[in-house]
Amino acid sequence: MNVEPHDDARFPTKADAPSHFAWIRTRLSVERTLMAWIRTATALIGFGFTIVQFFERLENTAGVEAARRPDAPRYLGLALIGAGVAGLLISIHQYRRLNHYLLAAFPSISGLPDVAKRTPLVYIAVALVLIGLFAFVAVLTRVV
Q1: Whose CA is closest to 95, among 20, 143, 9, 32?
Q2: Which of 33, 45, 100, 131 is 20 to 30 A from 84, alpha carbon to alpha carbon?
Q3: Which of 57, 51, 44, 54 has the alpha carbon at shortest distance from 132?
Q4: Whether the model pTM is above 0.85
Q5: CA quadruple 18, 20, 24, 26: dihedral positive or negative?
Q6: Within 10 A of 134 (CB to CB), how many other CB atoms are there?
Q7: How many Å apart are CA 89 and CA 136, to the nearest integer?
Q8: Which long-range contacts (CB under 8 A, 24 or more apart) does 117-124 make?
C-alpha cells in the first residue's frame, strides 16, 4: 500500500485510481459551482439592466402616468447589477482558493500537468465581471 501523506499529515492519500477519480469528481464539482455562479450573475446583471431600460422606455410612452418614484427602477437595477458582480467576484475568489487547495494538498493523486490546471472558466467569469461593471457604470451615469 503506497501512502503519500500530505504536508501536515492530516490526509494520508493513496495514489490509486479510486482516489484519483474522487479528486476529479471534487474538482469538477468546484467547476460546476463556478458555472452556477456565472449563470446566476448573468441573470442578475441582465435583469438589472433590463429593469432600468424597460422603465425608462415606459416613462417616454404616450398615455402612461408618471411614476411616483421615478428613480426606484434605476436603484433596483443598480442593486441587481452590483449583486451579480459582487457574487461573481466572491465566487471567483472561492474557486481559485479551492483549486489551489486541491492541487497543493493532494499533488500525488491529481495527476494533472501544469497546462490542465487552468480552465477557460475563470476568463469567462472575469469577462462577465467587466461586462457587469460596464453595465453598472452605464446605468449609474445614464449613458445608455
Answers
A1: 32
A2: 100
A3: 44
A4: no
A5: positive
A6: 15
A7: 15
A8: 119/31, 121/31, 121/34, 121/35, 121/38, 121/95, 122/34, 122/92, 122/95, 122/96, 124/38
Residues 6+ apart with CB under 8 A from 43: 84
Residue 6 and residue 13: Cα distance in Å, rounded?
8
Please give the pLDDT value at position 9: 55
Q: What does the domain layout of the chain look like in residue ranges? A: 15-61+74-140
Residue of 75, 78, 74, 97 whose CA lies nearest to 86: 78
Query: What does the block give as the cell for 7?
Result: 504536508
Grid cell digits, residue 38:
456565472
Q: What is the mean pLDDT of residues 95-114?
A: 80
